[in-house]
What does this fold into?
Amino acid sequence: MKYALFLGCNIPARVVQYEKSARAVLGLLGVDLLDIKEFACCGYPVRNLDRTAFLLSAAHNMALAEQAGLDLLVLCKCGFGTFKEAQHQLFQEPEMKEKINGKLAAEGLRYSGEVKVKHMLSVLYHDVGLEKIKESVTKGFKALPIAVHYGCHALRPSAITQFDDPVAPVIFDQLVEATGADSVEWSARLDCCGAPLTGINDSLSRKLTARKLMSAREGGARFLCTSCPFCHVQFDTVQEHMESKNDGGRPIPAILYSQLLGLAMGLPGEGLGLAENQLDISEITSYLS
It folds into this structure.
């Protein structure tokens, strides 16, 4: 299976370990990735400022994937949700779709709407499959309590994203448990991590993060598992700042799912970018069986 890989803006700049670990595990699982150098911003930053610019940005990337004859594999959940929303709007409004295609024509592109947009977790769960993932686990974790953080943009609006049940999702939990880790129950698992407020209202942002961390602790989690660069930065970099100010209690280090899976598959930590995480997660290797 082969996909056009969309990295977005934040991963190359702030979460390079996500790309490194994702390429490593997807490669071992037989997922081929095409890098399209003309990929640009997904349109998320202007989504609520300039609708035409938002749709044009999203359609530009999807048209490039269509031109390559491939579906789109997205690592960022904000990017994933943005593409799905753009697809929905362009399907609902043929006139707007033609307006956007008129602008794309200057680049020799046209968006037909046939491209499928998938988050990495969806590809792993539906296309690769849990059984193949379990077969790829060579070390596996034992007695490792993980708090799975779904994030907002993949789950809602569920009729558009079609990622999982927005009230009782299971995909991410089952993927984590395929590594041998235990997905714990925690009351705030579907709440916002606070990242959208960082830089706007830092106090409220950190309160939301602290509430999530408290819930994870109460659930018995030793680590958080993420699959979105925005959420990961919030639970890694921002939590590290909170810890330095004694603002959040016992830290719960965050690990990207691609890093967690890579360790279970026997890949070395340096190849998964573990050292790039701000909070030390080296202890997690002690749970490998």
